[in-house]
Amino acid sequence: MNNNGAGSSSGSGDASPARRNSKRPKYSRFTQQELPACKPILTPQWVISVFTLVGIIFVPIGVAALLASNDVVEIIDRYDAVCVPQNMTNDKVGYIQNDAIDKTCTRRIKVPKDMNQPIYVYYQLDNFYQNHRRYVKSRNDGQLRDRSKENDTSGCDPEKTTSNGVPIVPCGLIAWSLFNDTYNFTRGNKALTVNTTDISWKSDRDHKFGDDVFPKNFQNGNLTGGKKLDPNKPLSQQEDLIVWMRTAALPTFRKLYGRIEVDLKENDTITVTLKNYYNTYSFSGKKKLVLSTTSWLGGKNNFLGIAYLTVGGLCFFLATTFTVVYLVKPRKLGDPSYLSWNRNTGGH
Amino acid sequence: MARSTKRLRDRLWWSKLYTFSCTRPAVSIDPHSVDGPGYARIVYCNKPEAHRRRPVKYQSNYTSTTKYNIITFLPKAIFEQFRRVANLYFLLAAALSLTPVAPFSAVSMIAPLTFVIGLSMAKEAVEDWQRFIQDMKVNTRKVIVHKGNGKFGHRHWLKVRVGDVVKVEKDQFFPADLVLLSSCYEDGICYVETMNLDGETNLKVKRSLEATMILDEDEAFKDFSAVIRCEDPNPLLYTFVGNLEYQKEVFALEPNNILLRDSKLRNTAYVYGVVVFTGHDTKVMQNATKSPSKRSGIERRMDCIIYVLFTSLVLISLISSSSFAQKTKYEMPHWWYLQPQRTTNLYDPSRPLLSGLFHLITALILYGYLIPISLYVSIEVVKVLQALFIKQDIQMFDEETGKTADARTSNLNEELGQVDTILSDKTGTLTCNQMDFLKCSIAGVHYGVGSSEVEIAAAKQMAIENSTLASSDYPDDIDDGFFGSTEIKLESVACENDNSKKPKIRGFSFRDDRLMEGNWMKEPNSDTILMFFRILALCHSAIPEPNEVTGGFTYEAESPDEGTFLVAAREFGFEFCKRTQSSVFIRERYPKFSTSIEREYKVLNLLEFSSKRKRMSVIVQDDSGNILLLCKGADSIIFDRLSRNGGMYEYETSVHLKDYGESGLRTLALAYRKLEPTEYNAWKTELLNAKTSIGPDRETQLEHVSDMIERELILVGATAVEDKLQKGVRFLFQMLANDKLINQVLILYAMQVPQCIDKLAQAGLKIWVLTGDKMETAINIGYACSLLRQCMKQISISTMSNEFPSQDAKKVLAFCLTSDQAIKDDILLQISNASQMIKLDKDPHAAFALVIDGRALSYALEDDLKHHFLNLAIDCASVICCRVSPRQKALVTKLVKEGTGKTTLAIGDGANDVGMIQAADIGVGISGVEGMQAVMASDFSIAQFRFLETLLLVHGHWCYKRIAKMICYFIYKNIAFGFTLFYFEAFTAFSGQSIYEDWYMLLFNVVLTSLPVIALGVFEQDVPSEVFSQFPALYQQGPNNLFFDWKRILGWMLNGVYASIIIFIININNIGGNQAFRESGQTPDLTAVGTTMFTCIIWSVNIQIALTMSNFTWIQHLFIWGSIIAWYMFLSIYGAFSPLISGNAFLILREVLGPAPAYWLVTLVVTVACNLPYMVHNSYQRLLYPLDHHVIQEIKHFKKDVEDQRMWTREKSKARQCTKIGFSARVEERIRIIKRAGSVHSDFVHAGFIQSMDLICALHVVVEL
């Protein structure tokens, strides 16, 4: 798109020899709206080449994204239903709320393909509205960060204080409902260690959760929610809480549980011993355990590749269509016969 | 005492002469009855201190047109702001944001509102301040006031009080409504110019009471004391009822004794007057109506769009809240993590209806982004900037007066681009009301070699057309068209230079050596020529006034034509130098004698001009005792009154008259008659009888008597005076100083009023002229401006009253009884006949002109006739209404506006145009002359009529497109943004959680997307400005509303919905999915998804606006790319704040999103996908159905206009609406006739044209019933 300059050569009035009137507007290209301007025109050539170019760029990106997604190995294991004892399947809520029943459950997972470390362990919840307005708001960032603000529980309704009025640290619904299932992995007889450090954002650990803030009165209210926190560990080290406190955007979400820092081979069988504590039965949410590797684009997701391929393909199609239209019905650019006065009356 | 009575008698006699009212009988008027309600005002003259206490404490003379003062500004301005429904809505939302119902923090609602309201209020304040400054200029004008003991001193206008005696000097304005006490003339008269009140430029005579006229020096007011009892303040300009009690006598005061504020003392050294009404009590201020606030069509349509958006807002809010209630009732009890058993009313599963209701409010606030809060303020900012550009435009700067164009109310800018009908005042608007003696015909011989503006311009146009024709006939000879126009340029340059060398005499452009410098003596008919000059010098009612500067005389005449004749006579050697009570003195200069001879002519009688008589005569006796009757008048009247031998030159003269008329000149025929003393004496007694008779017959009798003597005339010749059209010659010279040939021609060509009208007509605008002038004058100007031409069929509609034999008293009576209905029927008949005629006319080139006079108009505007009238008027190519009152002007304007539903523009300069200016969609005031009333009432002011072309075709068109595009885009943008919020709700159980951080939302409209929109609204240009005058037809895109019809608006809305869907779906499925979005395995949270989505929106809408623009200066680049960069900058800065402020957005770009390739890839694909449909639509339209501006853009882009001159010229000449008025129509007509005449060789084009003109004139039809 070339630069046409002002497109005006009238050079109005600037050359006036005598400026008798002080009120005379000063000439400048700005005030006379004659600033040099680039006036791009969507000529057919431009349109066709832009579409082609977009196609040329987008299709490879799409292919690359699909390949990346295909490289990711992902194991998903839904365990909420199967971990309920046979006799309790009709009263799952009663099962989960009964602390007397042992919640241990063992799952076997077969590795379908080689998985290179790090292998990320996620838990996935379904139909869990972490993005509900009441839930999202129910926290106090100041309290999480600063020991001196322990008593500041504003915004934490309805989980502010214990029944005798002592402030809860960390307060609020989010912390209170912290996910508390635990997973232990073994391959053969050898335990696979799950590294649960460094799973949250560094900035969260450093700046958002204080290293001198310790849980207080947590889960001591009338109602017990999720996980109980170790009162001797500062919040900045409670990474499961830090991850949990990043509320998810959608009701189906995964959160990072830990990392297995060993390569897994195809057909390996992994035994997962899990504690099925977390109540998703009330709202019939699913619980899944996910083991996944990542690519440069993240997890397994074909959508981005498909989106790129679609848009790129569409652009190729449009480029072809416009070429055809242009060849069938060419219009000379700047052909005056297309001016309305020429079309309507056929000229005077 | 005896001396003073004698003096008094002398003065009375004088006054009769000055005003030529000798025929009026002296009847004393009884004092008015001034009791009762409405007549409560008492003024103690010369005792202003008596008015300090009630009940006679009146308004001060301080006038104010401001809307606010310091105290009322805040409450009033805030009230004004919240009268806008949208603002009220946002105020409510802001108030609710303080409660827990709100989905956002309070600051993110209140901050933008404060910003927006603050900006609007600042604008109001600035505008009001300017009004205040203007007021103060008027209020601090100085006037001489009696300060006691016969001493006078200066005082500001605002300090003038009721009862003050003031002395007003020549050419000063009256500071308040005064009762005239005395003047410098001994008979207590003065001349007043009331242009500011009624637009009339001729002087009016005001007279003082006889009782007070001796108070003509400062000393006399030492002990002056009188009481005036009069009516209360009222807006009626032409009435006044009151009594003056002076020296124990009571005198009646009449409108004639009153000097109104804002009129001007002329031709009188000074007057004394006593103040009766001050400040807002004065008649002119009482007349000042509040100018109605006008809204443009686009803005009205925008309201509809807002309603549509509001409806959808309510709709999706209802969907949201009902779904929310349902979810809360049935599902929320199971969501233990929300502790549903410990909820507030907002989320109470046991009371879902109440919660739903609360949620409705939340939703209404949440989706409020559908309604662009900053739309109004952005539009206001844009319009102010557009107005600044209008003001700064050098093309619309008038060197003569030093005035620029001004947009006084900036909210109508875009309406300028949609005008359909222009209603124009004549005097001072089209013409400068300055006459120029140009040609004359004496004894059947034509004199005067100069050409009128109309002729020059028509010749130019002809030459251009011919050369174009020629070049298209001979395609090989490409240079021809170009060369031809160059020649024209040179010719006109030469002509202009000629003018500039000679010191020009105002009002005299006659050039012909046969008559000048006494050469007329050598002409064969020198006797007749002598008589011609004498008639010019004698037959008038003007007063000479010595001019100290030049030593000559200037003339104060009732009409500018008369003044011109006197100037002409002086230049011919017959200088009118003195008028006494009974004589006129002429200094005659003959080449034979070295000095001039002063001759005295006794004026025996003066038969005044009236529009009915259409002539005036004087009867004079020269020094040798001959009695002559000298007469000038309309040719038709004079020709009827010629003696058998007097019509010697009748044929030649009438041919010349027709010629002059066609050149747009005002013509008068001159004739004389020798009277025998006996004949005269006999007639004189009859005249005396008539004069002394009392009763309604008197006027008729006088007329009859005058009629008796004005017969048997001998024709001398005819004059042709040009009513100078407004133009700006000086500007031309500057243009010519450049060396760019083509552009000069174009500019030259666009300079003058007829060309401007021509351009406007080519742009498809209809032009109506509404004038207070008489029909002949109006028609002449119609010719001069090319609104009329000889070959047009004129339909003139007038009342038949004129045709009634007025002497017959009985018939008059009968006529009066039946008049109303009869006249109405008659006018209906005229209208329907004319419509019929137009319908039956088969000639496609036939053009009709409608001329209607004020009286007929008053009937035609009645409810049952007005639509017939309007339909007829719409069929006519040009419409001229003459003798219309200011009220009628407004009524006609209203009729056109409401009857056609199209946009009307009224343009005028005087106070008489105020009604029309206010009634029209757009009022334009001419600010070139002194009167400010029209300008004050107007929406735009320009210095000269010709600037209307630039104002409409360039600025109007641009502003229309800019505003239209801007609003469309705004709506698109907010839909694209607002709907994503709605979609997201479906994933949050409709809980009212927003996906974006509060700060993003706050900044979206106010910072991140506002500047590009403003750039679009201020700097967008589809084609460069000079193209508009070359292709006036481009203007039609506005009146046809090509860029703001519902199709386009809906298109943009759909585009917005599409974009919102694309943005949401791609984001939710990529970043928003449950998968990790980075190699390091983290999954995205709400903030990350929201931020990515917001990034996509920022990119998409900014790329969209870039695609919408067709003109990129550095400003656009800066704003668009700057906005995108600003978003990233904001993210980094916001992310760097403590997490207490930024929350989850802490370091979001640096740590979370920046390193993720997915984030950038999603942005890219969304941006491209969102803009695909617009791109496809635009390319498709351009490729197959290009609009005019597309093609012209291409021509300009490929420099085809430079390479293919011939095509460019050809297209320029074609690029116009089919028009029936203006030069082009004239020229086309000529060309048609020439072609019809057959084989006329191009060399004889001109001759052929003249021959065919006769033919056309034979066709000329005047319908008169």
Topology record:
The complex is a heterodimer of chains A (348) and B (1265).
Chain A: H1 44-71, E1 74-78, H2 92-97, E2 104-110, E3 119-125, H3 133-137, H4 141-145, H5 173-176, E4 182-187, E5 190-192, E6 194-195, H6 202-208, H7 239-245, E7 253-260, E8 269-275, E9 287-292, H8 303-328, H9 340-345
Chain B: H1 2-19, E1 41-45, H2 70-81, H3 85-96, H4 106-139, E2 142-146, E3 152-156, E4 165-169, E5 177-183, E6 189-193, H5 195-198, E7 203-207, E8 226-230, E9 242-246, E10 249-253, E11 258-259, E12 264-266, E13 270-277, H6 283-287, H7 297-330, H8 352-366, H9 373-392, E14 406-407, E15 419-424, E16 431-442, E17 445-447, H10 453-473, H11 479-501, H12 526-538, E18 543-546, E19 553-556, H13 560-572, E20 574-579, E21 583-588, E22 597-607, E23 615-621, E24 627-633, H14 635-640, H15 650-662, E25 666-675, H16 677-692, H17 697-709, E26 714-725, H18 729-737, H19 741-749, H20 753-762, E27 766-770, H21 775-784, E28 793-797, H22 809-840, E29 848-853, H23 854-860, H24 866-875, E30 878-882, H25 886-900, E31 903-908, H26 914-919, E32 922-926, H27 933-937, E33 940-942, H28 947-986, H29 998-1008, H30 1010-1019, H31 1025-1030, H32 1046-1069, H33 1086-1108, H34 1114-1136, H35 1139-1142, H36 1148-1153, H37 1157-1184, H38 1188-1197, H39 1200-1203, H40 1205-1214, H41 1223-1237, H42 1245-1259, E34 1262-1263
Parallel strand pairs in B: 15-27, 15-31, 27-30, 28-29, 28-34, 29-30, 31-32, 32-33
Antiparallel strand pairs in B: 1-8, 2-3, 2-4, 4-13, 5-11, 5-13, 6-7, 6-12, 8-9, 9-10, 14-33, 16-17, 16-26, 18-19, 20-21, 21-22, 22-23, 23-24, 24-25, 25-26
Helix pairs in contact in B: 2-4, 3-4, 4-9, 4-29, 7-8, 7-28, 9-28, 9-30, 10-11, 10-40, 10-41, 11-19, 12-13, 16-17, 20-28, 22-24, 28-30, 28-32, 28-33, 30-34, 32-33, 32-37, 33-34, 33-37, 41-42
